[in-house]
Design a protein that fits this description.
3 helices, single chain, about 170 residues, seven-stranded mixed sheet, alpha+beta, about 30% strand, Bact_Acetyltransf, Aminopeptidase
């Protein structure tokens, strides 16, 4: 993992996030025929249940991930991406999302990836996520693999993640 890697609370529309989201969308479109760009259609920046993190190495944004609400107690992990695979960026982003989701009051995190995305399936399983029945818009989709993980008891008082502010977000 890069020595100077740190997480920043941000927004999907932040200028530093856009190249990462575009690269992820291009990769998903090429590999699976769908780019997932509609992930932030219902994003509410002023809602503490919506979490978006950037992973930065010095001044370069090198990874991202988000959590949005499925219910009051279940958050959905979206748009996980590491610009440089195999350097611990994805692990750091996911750990940051889990901590931020717990502080936001979520008891569980769910996510979906493609069954054919074996790297992602293995990544999540290694981090304690287990296959769950397909949920929401993934019900009946044979190409979808849904995973879930308990975050433990929800804290009595919730707050936003204690992270640095975003880099030049306007």
């Amino acid at each position: 993992m890069p020595q100077s890697l740190y997480l920043v609370a941000s927004h999907p529309d932040a200028p530093q996030a856009q190249p990462l989201i575009n690269a992820l969308s291009a990769d998903l479109g090429t590999r699976f025929g769908s780019d997932g760009r509609d992930s932030f259609g219902d994003w509410q920046a002023d809602d503490p249940k919506h979490v978006f993190l950037l992973a930065c190495n010095d001044d370069e944004a090198v990874g991202c991930g988000a959590v949005r609400p499925l219910s009051e107690s279940i958050g959905e992990v979206k748009r996980m991406y590491a610009k440089y695979p195999g350097q611990g960026i994805g692990r750091a982003v996911l750990a940051g999302l889990e901590a931020a989701a717990w502080r936001a009051g979520y008891a569980e995190l769910w996510l979906e990836t493609r069954i054919s995305n074996t790297e992602a399936c293995i990544f999540y399983e290694k981090r304690g996520y287990r296959r769950i029945p397909n949920y929401g818009r993934y019900i009946g989709r044979d190409d979808a693999a849904c995973f879930g993980r308990s975050l433990g008891p929800v804290p009595a008082v919730t707050s936003q993640p204690e992270l640095q502010t975003t880099l030049g977000n306007s």
